[in-house]
Amino acid sequence: MPFPHPFYRWRPHPWHGLEVGPNPPDIVHAFIEITPFDLTKYEVDKATGYLRVDRPQRSSSLPPSLYGFIPRTYCATRVGTLSGEGRHGDGDPLDICVLSERPISRSEVIMNARVVGGILMVDRGEADDKIIAILQNDAFWGNVHDIAELPPILIERLRHYFATYKLIPGDSSQVSIESAYGADHAHAVVKAAMEDYVEVYGG
After folding, report:
1. Is residue 68 part of a domain?
2. Domain limits for position 89
3. What is the pLDDT of residue 6?
4. Number of independent structural domains in the chain
5. Lowest-confidence pick of 2-11, 100-109, 128-137, 154-163
6. Alpha helices in the chain (DSSP H)
7. Which of 52, 152, 159, 176 is most buried (CB neighbours < 10 A)?
8. Residues 6+ apart with CB under 8 A from 60
């Protein structure tokens, strides 16, 4: 008996096997790797698609939001060009932070998220944008459409987390937080990452 569409007989790879989202670049899928309760950095293993322990966090700060990536995106030439300074993207899927009123304590979940802005982080000279999004239909944040509508303290916490989460005592920081930007630029970054993905991996 054939499997009914769209049933997957085997688990799809979360980066390459899932769709970008129902209405990108506005509503995208977010595959969550880390929750606000995690003191260990988890990252999808690019070969298998399973979560791998990347490193225990050295600092005491917790992620201010759900954190993961947008499937079928890739940060290369186009994403780097949007960051200015002749940079290149970091060669990873596009990172996304998703805000939710209700605590979500599980990772390896997929959610629909509305893109409202982003933070330009530069890591060792490469663009490493962090898209900021709202869990679609969230009872508290659901009507937010741009980063300007979010409390400044939330953006401050995100900026601080990403500025410090790779710090090693005694070493100089290789990370800088360049700017925060609104929904229009964030949509352009998502589109650029989708186009970079198609160029490298195909449609």
Report:
1. yes
2. 27-201
3. 67
4. 1
5. 2-11
6. 77-83, 152-164, 183-201
7. 159
8. none
Tell me the pLDDT band of 27, cut-offs 50, 70 and 90.
very high
* Residues in contact with 100: Cβ distance below 8 Å, sequence separation at least 6, in sequence order: 65, 66, 135, 138, 141
For the chain, first and last CA: distance in Å?
30
Please state the rounded mean pLDDT for residues 85-105: 93
Instruction: Decide: 74 and 197 in contact? Cβ < 8 Å.
Output: yes
CA-based R_g, the chain, Å? 16
Please give the C-alpha separations between residue 171 and each of 90, 165, 175, in angstroms, as whole numbers: 21, 13, 12
91's tokens:
């060669």
Q: Is residue 6 part of a domain?
A: no
Contacts of residue 113, defined as CB under 8 A and 6 or more positions apart, other chains included, come to 21, 27, 28, 29, 30, 96, 98, 133, 134, 135, 136
pLDDT above 90 (res 109): yes
Answer whether residue 19 is part of any domain.
no
Going from the C-alpha of 1 to that of each of 4, 6, 11, 168, the distances in angstroms are 9, 15, 19, 56
* Cβ–Cβ < 8 Å for 12, 71: no
Q: Tokens 């300007």 identify what position?
A: 148
Q: Are 109 and 4 in contact (CB under 8 A)?
A: no
CATH value at residue 100 = 3.90.80.10
In a domain, 138, yes or no: yes
